[in-house]
Amino acid sequence: MLRNPDRTRTMLELNSDEYRVLIDPERGGSLAAFEWAGHAILRASRPGPMSKTACFPLVPFSNRIANGKFTLAGQDFQIAPNAHAVDANNPIHGFGWLSAWDVVSADASSAVIEHSFSGGEWPWRYVAQQHVSLKEDGLTLKLQVTNVDETAMPAGLGFHPYFPRKADTTYHGLHTGEWLVDDGRLPVQLTETPEPQDWWNGRPVGSRIVDTVYTGRTGPLKLFWPDIAAKATILPSDNLPFTVVYTPSGQDFFCVEPVSHETDAVNKRNGVMVMLAPGETMSASMQIKVEAAN
Fold first, then answer.
1. Which of 64, 121, 147, 234 could form a disulfide with 276 if both were Cys (CB 3.0 to 4.6 A apart)?
2. What residues are paired with 58 via a beta bridge?
């Protein structure tokens, strides 16, 4: 492993055909850029907090835990907020995005980076790896987490990409449910439909201001940028059946995040997280293919 004990900034560049990726291991194992044919498919990273990166991994849970409290096997747990600039009341997105990652291996078109967590308020030790690869058919991100502790650990995975947004940018994803959230972005009511539907009905992604979870995904997720005549297809693994969509008002980006569980799932508010036995590994992946739009 290519350890970086001095924590100096190590940027990795990958290239394949018309694709280019920059990886910033020291900044939460994030991507700093993803380009196709010279166009930014992910928003390029900007100085500042992790919410200014191009994409970061979600491990060992996605989104928020309500007030940082949950009970498991009769034991109560309390986790402090970990990103006050994003949410001052609830821990969010796990710990991988706030940690420096080590480079395990890298070549011209692929890299493996690793994050180890030694326990604390989240009492389970784990090791996470992210595999980043470029091929002629696009970018593939594979994320895995291994429970290296002595008791079963709740676990969840996901990806948090930021996409550039213009007035006519569209997003298409088929889901059966949409969560209504409260002011703290915690789910309170699920609206469900008999068949999966496009909740935007073909309108531009910025036409709805949301920060919520969609359930029951069917098929791929699709993005279209008329200004650069490009379309992207996101292919999440089957164990990422939920999608967080974030379309903030007045911003030049939006997020479409394939995730393994709904918000606050550790409290069984909306289902459950995977329970990893000691030594067990959970893996998930996301592929992004880009092509010219006809």
1. 147
2. 158
Report how far residue 72's alpha carbon sits from residue 69's, in angstroms, rounded to the nearest whole number: 10
- The answer to whether 228 and 215 have CB atoms below 8 angstroms apart is no
Strands 138-147 and 75-78: unpaired
121-176 pLDDT tens trace: 999 999 999 999 999 999 999 999 999 999 999 999 999 999 999 999 999 999 99
Number of residues in the chain: 294
Cis geometry, peptide bond prior to residue 154 (ω within 30 degrees of 0): no
Give CA–CA dist 92/113, Å, rounded.
Answer: 22
Task: State both tokens at 108.
Answer: 């011209």
> Distance (Å, rounded) from C-alpha 191 to C-alpha 184?
19
Q: Which domains does the chain have, with CATH numbers?
A: 12-292 (2.70.98.10)
Report whether 206 contacts 230 (CB < 8 A): no
Read off the tokens for 251.
């911003």
d(CA 227, CA 39): 11
